[in-house]
Amino acid sequence: MTCPPGHPPSRREILKLLAAGVSGVSMSGWMGSLAAQPRAGKKKCILLWMDGGPSQTETFDPKPQASADVRGGLEAIGTSVPGIQIGEKFPRLARLMQHAAILRGMKTDEADHGRARITMHTGFRPGAGGVEYPGLGSTVAAELGPEESTLPNFVVTGSVLNKYDYVRDSGYRGPRYLPLVLRQPGNGLEDGQATVPEAEFARRVNLLESLEDRFTRAVDAPAALAHQAGIAGAVRLLRSDRAKAFDLTLESQASAAPYGPSDFGRGCLLARRLVEAGVAMVEVYLSNWDSHEKATADRTRELMTQVDDGVSALLGDLRARGLLEETLVIWMGEFGRTPRVNRSGGRDHHAKGWTSVLFGGGIRGGQAVGATDREGAEVTQRPISVADFMGTVCRILGIDHTREIDTPGGRPIRIVEKGEHLIHEIL
């Protein structure tokens, strides 16, 4: 195992690291010196990912004049912005709409979960041009994250149905910009207590060192070097006081309570702590929005309450700490749901017209951009493509979305696909 000169980790620290379940793949997103600090003036991004696709008509694009099978038993409520209504399950968020831009004209071509999830994370359709594209988190980490930092520049947390549902491929950006993945936001970096005797861990570490050394001597592969450097970076993080940013027990009950008791709420609290500490990108997952049947559709009501608690607390906290203007918060899934309830009492996949929401980041809030028809089926005003959306997000964050990146294969790739029309209404 290769570590930076001058301060190699002890064997006990390495054992604690491995016992904590932190893998080399999930740690490769940060390397460098302990002295590094966040670059002044750089914006941060928090992506709140609603995995499975939430219903636009039940959340941020209600249709109060539509039939009951469109409303789905939920009504619209007024907000802090005259003329803008949202779903009744968001009473706390309704009071914060002056900070929001509701994008009701989202229109994409992918209605398959896997393909749409990749499309909305990368801005490109899967396999387009034979290139592996990086997700938004890896792009933000590469463009805005400190090149040398104790903390990772990209952290992913929250609930998904299985570990493969996380979109964490750094694509042509390389393993340096992979995220640190924490499946349980409330557990932080764990306590590092070994679950087997130390002698057994020592044997495993020796085997790992031997295999890595033999491999890197035979193949000078960037991924292997990144793996080794990632291990060293994780040990530095464990040694650093800045690791406390992951410890939610340091929050008072009064500051933690507004986020609610859910893992999603804890993920939002963790996101606030991490961007405050200098992490460039945090993504928080909330799964189970795939509501094809009445039982699953009914459960999404609970998810809406988690969103109302967690997001409203996050926005209030960021604002109180002077961080909202420099932190873009994105709420979205991979697509929406069919406007009409199906025969099973749920809603199916729908990519022809749906909603995402942006908060903070210096945008012009207090508005809805685009519109769908009376039932929320088709976009009737200002359609927003994936390229439009990604280009606008990059512009808000201060990233030149037109810049071309030289990929490992020697092919220059634009950060955002050509043909974008930025959403100037919110810039």
SSE succession = HHEHEEHEHHEEHHHHEHEEEEEEEHEE
CATH fold call of the largest domain:
Alkaline Phosphatase, subunit A
Question: Helical region count?
Answer: 12
Approximate strand percentage: 15-25%
Radius of gyration: 22 Å
Describe the structure.
The protein has 427 residues and is of the alpha/beta class. The protein folds into two domains: 1-30 and 189-246, no CATH class; 45-185 and 252-426, Alkaline Phosphatase, subunit A, CATH 3.40.720. It has helices at 11-19, 24-27, 68-71, 91-94, 113-122, 136-144, 198-218, 222-239, 253-256, 263-277, 294-320, 386-397, and strands spanning 44-50, 76-78, 85-87, 100-106, 154-158, 180-182, 281-286, 327-332, 336-337, 349-350, 354-360, 367-369, 371-372, 379-381, 404-406, 412-414. It is globular and about 70 Å long. The protein starts with 10 loop residues before the first helix and ends in a 13-residue tail after the last strand.
From the structure above, extract its key features:
427 residues, alpha/beta, eight-stranded mixed β-sheet, two-stranded antiparallel sheet
Question: What is this structure's SSE topology?
Answer:
Elements (H helix, E strand, L loop, with lengths): L10 H9 L4 H4 L16 E7 L17 H4 L4 E3 L6 E3 L3 H4 L5 E7 L6 H10 L13 H9 L9 E5 L21 E3 L15 H21 L3 H18 L13 H4 L6 H15 L3 E6 L7 H27 L6 E6 L3 E2 L11 E2 L3 E7 L6 E3 L1 E2 L6 E3 L4 H12 L6 E3 L5 E3 L13
Parallel strand pairs: 1-7, 1-8, 4-12, 5-6, 5-7
Antiparallel strand pairs: 2-3, 4-11, 8-11, 9-10, 13-14, 15-16
